[in-house]
Amino acid sequence: MNLAGIKKSEGVKVNASKSYFLGFGWNIKDALDIALEEAGPDYDMLIDGVVRYASYPFVLQIKVEGTAVNSQKMIAQMGQEGFNQWISGHQVTTADTVKLIKE
C-alpha cells in the first residue's frame, strides 16, 4: 500500500507491551512509546496500529502493534499541506479517541 508517496515497506513493524500491577497508572502512551523506541530514533508515528489490553490476576497488560514511520519523511515528500490533508483524510487516533478491545 502506498500512502501518498510513503511505502509501508519503508516502515518498521513493531510489537510492544507494557504491564501494570493491579492496573495502577495504566495508559496507552507507555506501550506506544515502547513500540516507537523499538523501531528506532527516526520513527515517530504508528500506522495500521492496533491496541489491545489483557487482564490477568493482579496485572493489566497493554499491547501495541503496527508499522512505525517517519512523519518528517512524509512531510518532505508530501509537503506540510499535503501531510495535513493526508492526516485529515485518515482515521487518526489520539488519546481522546482510543477504543480498547479486551483479549
Tags for this model:
103 residues, alpha+beta, four-stranded mixed sheet, two-stranded antiparallel ribbon, 6 strands
Topology record:
Elements: E1 2-3, E2 6-7, E3 12-21, H1 28-39, E4 45-56, E5 59-69, H2 71-88, E6 101-102
Parallel strand pairs: 4-6
Antiparallel strand pairs: 1-2, 3-5, 4-5
Summarize the structure.
This protein has 103 residues and is an alpha+beta fold. The chain has helices spanning 28-39, 71-88; strands spanning 2-3, 6-7, 12-21, 45-56, 59-69, 101-102.
Structure notes:
The chain has one domain. The protein has 103 residues and is α+β, with helices and mostly antiparallel strands. 29% of the residues lie in helices and 38% in strands.
* Radius of gyration using CA atoms only: 15 Å
Question: Any idea how many domains?
Answer: 1
Strand content: 35-45%
Oligomer: single chain
Helical content class: 25-40%
Care to count the β-strands?
A: 6
**Shape from CA axes?**
elongated
- Largest beta-sheet characterization: 4 strands, mixed
Terminal Cα span = 28 Å
Q: Write the element-wise H/E pattern from the N-terminal end onward.
A: EEEHEEHE
Uncertain segments are: none
Mean pLDDT: 81
